[in-house]
Specification:
The protein has helices spanning 7-31, 34-44, 49-68, 72-90, 106-121. By secondary structure, the protein is mainly α. It is found in: Cell membrane.
Length: 137
């Protein structure tokens, strides 16, 4: 049974913390690794360099959107393939555990499922611009 009094706030918490994590990852790519470094890394693992910059932008813009509640369902759905791509291409060869050298694939897969859950749950409380149908939890 879902507690309709607290569920919107639980979704808010999940949405905001996930957005903060995505924003942080994008800003690390921007300010620490730089766009050129991020593109170079993507090329080193056999992906086009421009995809690294696109990933960085998706993480930054998507992270902000999640924190603010701007199109939560759509943003979360967009994040799922980004995170699965990170698991497959960036961490897939490093084993399961994220504490392995280079980080294993468990962490980005976990976040992909979290994003899928957020897409299913919707905006939660205090969303600035909800997209999609309104449902009561």
């Amino acid at each position: 049974m879902i507690d309709t009094r607290t569920a919107p706030y639980a979704v808010l918490l999940l949405r905001v913390i996930t957005g903060v994590y995505m924003l942080t990852h994008g800003l690390i790519k921007l300010f620490v690794f730089t766009p050129a470094g991020t593109a170079g890394y993507f090329q080193s693992i056999g992906l086009p360099g421009w995809l690294g910059v696109v990933t960085m932008v998706i993480e930054i813009v998507g992270g902000i959107a999640l924190v603010l509640g701007l199109g939560t369902r759509l943003v979360a759905l967009i994040m799922v393939p980004v995170l699965l791509g990170a698991a497959l291409f960036g961490h897939g060869g490093n084993g399961f555990t994220f504490s392995n050298a280079g980080g294993g694939w468990e962490y980005p897969v976990l976040w992909a499922f979290v994003m899928a859950a957020i897409a299913g749950l919707g905006d939660g409380a205090y969303a600035l611009f909800p997209l999609g149908r309104k449902t009561k939890i």
